Amino acid sequence: MSYPRSYRSASLIAFAVSFLFFFALPSFAQTQASCTFTYFNPPSGYLGGLYPDGINHYGTVVGAAYRDTGNYSTSFIRFSNGNTTLFKFPNAAWTELHKRNLNGTSVGAYGSTSASVPPNGTGSHGFILTTTSYSTVNYPGAIGTSLNGINKWNTIVGNAVDPNTKLTFAFRYQNGTFSKIVPPGSVQSTANAINDNGVIVGSYQKGTAWYGYTLKNGTSTFQSLSYIPLDINNSGVIVAASSRIYYPDGTVKVVYVPGSANTYVQGINDLGVLTGGASWGTLEFQGFTAVCH
How many independent structural domains does the chain possess? Predict the structure, then answer.
């Protein structure tokens, strides 16, 4: 099975672990979601696949487009009217956009070689992209940085690579200040998204196993999860690895694009609109937005 490069926030190990944990949870009611999909193709020349990662209030989708099946990408911004713009950080081998807030500010990562791709690639750099400018943001002293989420208050979350252990740790970046996120007992961690209420979601490794988490009220309220959350909206609805939607009432629904070989869901906005990708064998991955019930 092939997985999109945009799973920088949940390694294939974490992906598999979340799948196994899901079936060990009898308290969750699993049903297939009923969804209305809107599909969109990669831009001309990017037949390696289109990997949507985030969607904002206005239905603008951000992610990465690939010319081939390798790790060399260009980030894209697709507006709700279907217009798409591409952005490649100057002199970078690859560029990914991960999330975009309602103010039109996007965050992502770039690097000079395919080996630098997040989550734990040495030499990756975080960046912020606005309608008029872009700038690099790196965690001080780290040998790799990725910015993964941003809310309307411009609070950013992401991952960085420790220069000594070469392991990944999560952080929050607010008002020019970095704060490490260290889940209890964790070996390494990621921060995948943050909603407008300041709730952070991510994953962490404890021993040899990966778990998910939510973090509320700054850093004071930590909750471990048995699945890997990739995004969370203002209502507390979470999209997770294995193409699942977790609702606050405990309901779990699976998203599946009819007839596809693979479906993944990566982002959700405050209106409940999802974004992700699917493959049918002709394009590696095609993008979609979806309204699901």
Answer: 1
CATH number for position 129: 2.120.10.30
Q: Is the peptide bond before 119 cis (omega within 30 degrees of 0)?
A: yes
Alpha helices in the chain (DSSP H): 12-22
Give the Cα separation of 70 and 11 in Å (integer).
17
How far apart are the C-alpha atoms of 97 and 287, rounded to whole Å?
Answer: 14
Let me know if residue 141 belongs to a domain.
yes
- Give the model confidence (pLDDT) of 10-41 as tens digits: 333 333 333 333 333 334 457 999 999 999 99
- One-letter amino acid at 198 equals G
Give me the domain span that covers residue 192: 7-292
Q: Tell me: the pLDDT tens digits for 151-206? A: 999 999 999 999 999 999 999 999 999 999 999 999 999 999 999 999 999 999 99
Say how far apart CA 251 and CA 256 lie, in whole Å.
16
Give the chain's end-to-end CA distance (angstroms, integer). Answer: 27
Q: pTM of whole model > 0.85?
A: yes
Measure the CA–CA gap between 206 and 29, rounded to whole angstroms. Answer: 27
- H or E stretch covering 275: strand 273-279
> Is there a domain that residue 270 lies in?
yes
d(CA 255, CA 41): 19
- DSSP string of 40-56? EPPPTT-TTEEEEEEE-
189 inside domain: yes
CA distance 92 to 110: 6
DSSP class of 143? S
Q: Is 182 within a domain?
A: yes
State whether the Cα torsion 91-94-98-99 is positive or negative. positive
In angstroms, how far apart are the furthest CA atoms of the chain? 50
User: Tokens 């309204």 — which residue?
Assistant: 291
